[in-house]
């Protein structure tokens, strides 16, 4: 059994997905009903969204949550 000692390092691809669609943080924030600051904090990996917010992002980008969020495995376990 794997023991996880460290805090999980969750990364995301939101800025890439936004760039592909040529939308601003503000536009994304309005579409999923959060603030631009929330989007910025998530993109900068200063804030991990709730499960509901992760699914809102996935629905907006028409993809799976795991396509947007992923673990930095090198820094997430012993």
- Domains, number: 1
The number of helices is 5
> Judging from the principal axes of the Cα atoms, what is the shape?
elongated
- SSE order in H/E notation? EHHHHHE
Query: Distance between the terminal alpha carbons, to the nearest Å?
Result: 12 Å
CATH architecture: Orthogonal Bundle
Overall pLDDT metric? 92
CATH superfamily assignment? lambda repressor-like DNA-binding domains
The CATH class is: Mainly Alpha
Protein architecture, described:
It is built from 5 helices and 2 strands, in the order βαααααβ. The protein is mostly helical and 78 residues long. The protein has one domain (10-75): lambda repressor-like DNA-binding domains (434 Repressor (Amino-terminal Domain), Orthogonal Bundle), CATH 1.10.260. It has a two-stranded antiparallel sheet with strand order 1-2. The radius of gyration is 13 Å and the shape is elongated. The chain starts with 9 loop residues before the first strand and ends in a 7-residue tail after the last strand. The mean pLDDT is 92.
């Amino acid at each position: 059994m794997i023991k996880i000692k460290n805090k999980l390092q969750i990364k995301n691809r939101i800025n890439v997905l936004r760039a592909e669609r040529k939308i601003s943080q503000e536009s994304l924030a309005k579409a999923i009903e959060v603030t631009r600051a929330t989007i910025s904090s998530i993109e900068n990996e200063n804030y991990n969204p709730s499960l509901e917010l992760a699914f809102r992002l996935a629905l907006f980008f028409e993809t799976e949550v795991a396509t947007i969020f992923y673990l930095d495995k090198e820094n997430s376990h012993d």
